[in-house]
Design brief:
174 residues; ten-stranded parallel beta sheet
Amino acid sequence: DGALIAEGTATDSILFTSNKTNPSMGDWDKIDFQDSSDDSKCVIKYARIEYATTGIYIYHASPEITNNVISQCSVSGISWTTGINELSNNTIKNIGSQSGTGLYIGNNSSVTISVSNNSFSGIKGDGIRLSNNNGCTIRVFDNILSLIHVHIGRETAGINISQSNSNITISNND
């Protein structure tokens, strides 16, 4: 809650990581943006986020999240439930100790959502999962999804859509 401004540059990124000598997935919980966050003062740009359970968790908040590398998280790279409207230019890789999701977008109502120019790789589960979004306009375009791993006993996909009653456009993703 509150505010977080973490603005690195392309040549000098900010690092959020484990404090352990031999880090592993899930060493720390997450960067958490909630309804009480001051959206105008919530920015993560040019950061590296690694070894968390979930890299960034967004619930009823609208932080600016762009140009980041999120990796080695045990559950998800970004989990977004009712909040930001745009996510672009991020690299999300090596997510899931046994299964995981690169980007989870769920439980949104009547909003416009844009996911573009992101790269997803080495995900042990869904690259992008859209679940229980109703009355939304969702555009997923110009993303790269590669090396999405199949988890035995669970259906996985590059882009997984479930229980959504929304206008969803998926285009130009590799």
